[in-house]
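Q: I have 308 residues here and want to know how they pack in 3D. Can you give me a structure?
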Amino acid sequence: MSTVKKSSGTTGNQSKRIKVAAIVVAAVVVVVLLAMWIRSTTFGQDFIQQFPGHSELPAGTPDGLPAWLGWQHFLNAFLLVLIIRSGIQVRTTTRPAAYWTRNNKGLIRTKNAPTKISLELWFHLSLDVLWVLNGLVFAVLIFATGHWVRIVPTSWDVIPNAVSAGLQYASLNWPTENGWSNYNALQLLAYFATVFIAAPLSFLTGLRTSAAWPKKAAINKYFPIEAARAVHFPVMIYFVAFIAVHVFLVLATGVLRNLNHMYGNRDEVSWFGFWIFVISLVVMAGGWLLARPLFLRPVASLMGKVGR
């Protein structure tokens, strides 16, 4: 009897997934056909001509992508991949392999004894610190070099240009790709939201849910831990979605040229950036494989006590 019920439940779940997939496919088809129809009208053609999908950059904006941005991009991707992995481990691990307690005799000293946390949480928080430091270096460099205008809206026409870019993507006749000089409006808004909204939200909500946050702080009344938890996981989902779309567009809009922009510091179609990208993937895969208790224990013991 139980076997029959289990089989029936599995079949029901599969049926639901098929229905959801069918609805999604149908919705995508409708959006594509609607976008194509709009582009065929005089209104749609005039709109795209007036708003081609990108805003003009202010005079004096630096051209091209500097070498330091390539390094920042790699470090950000490397750390973000491991943060997502460790975050999933923290969320799903019921019996931690080990626990870590901070050494209270180092640079950071507190009156109360340090809180014991799981090794997975220690790894997640350590990665967060490195990611935030990398982000601060990135912010300083883009504002110091003038590259900030490439990911921060400077004109209200970014809104209709974003609508235009979205219409072009949806109609499968994509906007002209020129990331070396100027991102389209949708890319600009996505980068702005990621760097200046999602990243700070991830950091603040993650810090609020960690043992490092003071339990009796006055702000806790207005920033409860339940609210932080409710925001932190969806932000991680946003980062996963952003990475998926970002990688897809890199591959679909001229992979060799895009990889040269991101990793080769040059605007050309060659295999130079591709091979650097391959090396970066190998490093990321190595980090993923090494992110396990056997290798984390020795590193964590340098900063505190590791045990059960």
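Q: Anything worth noting?
A: The CA atoms of residues 159 and 185 lie 7 Å apart. DSSP finds ten helices and three strands in the chain.
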